[in-house]
Amino acid sequence: MTALLEARNVTKVFGGGLLTKTRTVALENFSLAIGNSPPSFTAVVGESGSGKTTLARILLGLTAPTSGEVLYQGKDVRHMSRAEHRTYLREVQVVFQDPYEVYNPFYNVDHVLETPIAKFGLAHSHKERRALIEEALQAVGLRPEETLGRFPHQLSGGQRQRIMVARALLLRPRIIIADEPVSMVDASLRATILKSLSNLNQQFGISFIYITHDLTTAYQVSENIIVLYRGAVAEAGDVEQVVQDPQHPYTQLLVGSIPLPDPHHPWAEAKAPAGIGTPTAESCKFTDRCPYAMPMCVEQQPALFRTDPRRVSACYLYRDAPAIKPEELTNIFAGTPTGTLQDHVAADG
Amino acid sequence: MTAEMRPLTSTQQTDALRVEELRVYYHTPRGAVRAVDGVTFDLKPHERLGFVGESGSGKTTIAMALIRLIKPPGKIEGGRVLLEETDVLALSDEQMRQLRLADIAMVAQGAMNSLNPVRRVRDQIADALIDHGTRISRREMETRIAELLRRVGLKTEVANMFPHELSGGMKQRVVIAIAISLRPRVIIADEPTSALDVVVQRQIMETLREVQDDLGASVILIGHDMGLMAQFVTRLGVMYAGKLVELGSVTNLFDEPLHPYAQLLIGSLPSLEHKGAFEGIPGVPPSLLDRPSGCPFRTRCPHAFDRCASEEPLLREVHPGHWVSCHLY
Amino acid sequence: MAEMPIDIAATPSAPIEERITFRDRTPMEAIVAYCRRNPNVVIGLSMIVTLLLISAVGPLFVDTTQADPLSALPAQSPSRHYLLGTDDQGRNLLAVMIAGLPDTLRIGFLAGAIGLGVGIILGFVSGYLGGVVDAVIRIAVDTLLTLPGILILITVAASIRTFISVNIMALVIASLAWRQPTRIIRAQVLTMRERAYVQVARRSGMNTPEIMVREMLPNLFPFLAASFVGAVFGAILFSIGLEALGLGPQNQPTLGMTIYWGIRFNALLRGMWWWWLPPIIMLVVLFFGLLLLTIGLDEIANPRLRRTA
């Protein structure tokens, strides 16, 4: 897999300057590479404060990292030529969380579909443009005659969000970053939207980064998963393994807290924290809540231990497994060519 | 429905709440929006009853109606709400004000965001108590507040803090503390955990259950998360387009849903056990202004037949304790 | 289901009252409803339009050359020939009203338009670009706002006394009229810049000027209208103030200058009500109309002031 979009040792810190007292580390030394041959579907799961939204904004170039870089096709997004930047803008698309805020209330919904076509010169006649739009709408399960010409407030949240997905598709991107695309949509419509994302992934070969707090939907649509806790990777890997057999105590807590829609399967007994002491900035971030915390957890943040070819856990419980560097995180995901780690690093250098 | 009270043989048999044919309409220049259209149910003592439905199904409106917080253009058009023996809809505004919090309390959606940001937690709890006529000494008040905070799993230090110093989960616990401060018999919780993460959500729901046990109260939980309902309530009602379409014990409802909407709803839930094709429910909910005749679900129902278009089904007890409104039964 | 007269599903979990919207009215119904909700706008607009009509149609009925001195016998009280009488210099005052009104209006609209135009440019640049540019513009505006406008204008007008014409007056006043619009527009742009639809537009390939004009500007129309009316109001007020002090165009019969001459020649003491009263009435109607319009537009720009339907 050739990396298209890459985050290298990205750290983002908020505050801590002259004016704000509290210094929050939103993301710490995070690295990830996404390509689209073959196309992948990666979920980034975490609660508020985990850094997942910050990650999305950094990957999209909306926020600059405090340290580290974001590269697209090998070039730093902050130092791109105009043409390169346009390519980046087009090939990495986004679906935002709020299906209302993304529409300019002055225009009808056609506006968000016609603008990219016009700006990127995707169609050369009115007929071509119409055809492109209709194709995109149908690909996400909408009927053009029921949606075009309407204003955003005349459509449901689910429809609005699907139009946004259609818009992203129009540009034939290589990667789509979906930031909580269904959390503000009615439960019964979520499945349809997620299915259309899955469709785009398989039919159109688009890689997805699906950001969410909902582990269940992440499980259903993704193949890879990264669990973030307070800005650091807690666990990552193949989604089946991570969800069915969570290794990191935080993931275990997360999976165990999900209310199963089965009255015969109540919440499992929650384990109490070990109460080992107060964590410092260097400790593992989960120390104060972890039932298995040990003194070494307070001393230093654990590395990513590769407990399986397709997964890592940042927890000293697995310190016998080989550790990998943050930059090597991508290697565990599906689609990475087999080969030694040195090969991969050499190819990049 | 007759207006006479049902004879009560013993206090054990008194329902905590009886609601009969409740109707709440919103009067708009284009007509009446039937947000709640003839809902009947009872709430037993010590019970946890849930109402689940999509947005527009009327579940929040029911909650607001039970404590009479419906504002114009909404209006409670008809029906009866009996809190033990008190006819809630017949009370004066002042009497209702006394009833709220003391007998029936509500944890509203987003309540944690409506805590007064410039007053300490202690003062906000004290306000609620004083407002309802509690006349106790300062020291007793401190003890009461500490006790309330302990009950919801918060440390006594929290009393001195301001809302912005607390996390979302802690704020929600403060709201619950205020709700139980006068030991109400009925607690209504409307999406109490919607903005909270899964881990905190579980803690809050467990707190709510402990608090309920402590008080011997009944709880009505309103939400759209079937998983949460399955884990928390003992009886569940399914709302659709302002009507109660199914009501039964939570085990019966999940094991054997009768109404096609409930069946589709449960069938569409994504599982954590295996990746599979998970489907939504095709179609859109009907407009509450211009409701189609007959059963409101018939446009999306896979089993609809002629009678569904002409005649509205009534809520009937098909199995003991299991009620459905559907022509299939 | 093609028809959705009521948008129920717009925001999940929002209380039903917030989700009820009515947008499928015919344009006529919408206008009528709007007028009923905003009587201020309607009344104010009617007053202004009436005055505009007078200034446009008036010259067809009245010979405006009679607004010049020595057109008739001086100091005549109203009669059949001279409906508003004449002043001490032999001007037919009815002609003066008809001739003077357009000048006053022109000053107002010209200064208002220039003020708004500059305000839009500076407000957008300042709000969107931020950083040093924003700091410079913001400090400049805030400082200039603290200076009393009338003082500056009197100083300027007194220095160029003989060169003043209606257009030059408009320019002089416009030099101050851009301050408030800049502030208002800058504040709005700051808010809109962070909106999701702007980010989507950027991702769709729009560049900054396009975003400003096509995405932000249309949403500013209520604010622009309110700012414009405010600027016009202020401009006319300043111009009348200057003229009444005698600092206006000496040879043109504007409303303000008529008042000045009236004061100068003691029209009040001499009971020549036809001299000082008509311009005042006209100005009162003008100001009142603009005021009502401002109040009405303010309601639109600031939804919290809106009365519930």
Which percent band covers the strand fraction of chain B? 15-25%
- Provide the spatial order of strands within the biggest beta sheet of chain A: 6-7-8-3-9-10-12-11-13
Instruction: Round the Cα radius of gyration of chain A to an integer and report it.
Output: 21 Å
Order of helices and strands of chain A: EEEHEEHEHHHHEHEHEEHHHEEEH
Distance between the termini of chain B: 23 Å
Distance, first to last CA of chain A = 15 Å
Helix count of chain A, per DSSP?
Answer: 12
Class inferred from helices and paired strands of chain A = alpha/beta
Give a short synopsis of this structure.
Chain A has 349 residues and is an alpha/beta fold. Chain A has twelve helices and 13 strands.
Which key features would you list for this structure?
heterotrimer; A: 349 residues; alpha/beta; nine-stranded mixed beta sheet; four-stranded antiparallel beta sheet; 12 helices; 32% helix; globular; disordered C terminus; C: 309 residues; mainly alpha; MetI-like fold; 13 helices; 0% strand; elongated; disordered N terminus
Describe this structure in words.
The complex is a heterotrimer of chains A (349), B (329) and C (309). Chain A is of the alpha/beta class. In chain A, 50% of the residues are buried. Chain A is globular. Chain A is built from 12 helices and 13 strands. Chain A starts with a strand and ends with a helix. In chain A, the strands form 2 sheets. Chain A has a 9-stranded mixed sheet with strand order 6-7-8-3-9-10-12-11-13, with helices on both faces. In chain A, strands 2-1-4-5 form a 4-stranded antiparallel sheet, with helices on one face. Helix content of chain A is 32%, strand content 21%. In chain A, a hairpin with a 2-residue loop joins strand 4 (67-72) and strand 5. Chain B has 10 helices and 12 strands. Chain B is an alpha/beta fold and 329 residues long. In chain B, strands 6-7-8-3-9-10-12-11 form an 8-stranded mixed sheet, sandwiched between helices. A 4-stranded antiparallel sheet of chain B has the order 2-1-4-5. The longest helix of chain B is centred in the middle third of the chain and has 18 residues, at 198-215. Chain C is mostly helical. Chain C has a single domain (59-72, 82-303), classed as MetI-like fold. Chain C has 13 helices and no strands. In chain C, helix 3 (39-61) crosses helix 4, helix 4 packs parallel to helix 8 and helix 8 (179-193) packs antiparallel against helix 11. The longest helix of chain C has 37 residues, at 93-129. The two termini of chain C are 28 Å apart. Residues 1-24 of chain C have low confidence and may be disordered. Classes of the chains: A alpha/beta (349), B alpha/beta (329), C mainly alpha (309). The interface between A and B is medium-sized, with 33 and 36 residues.
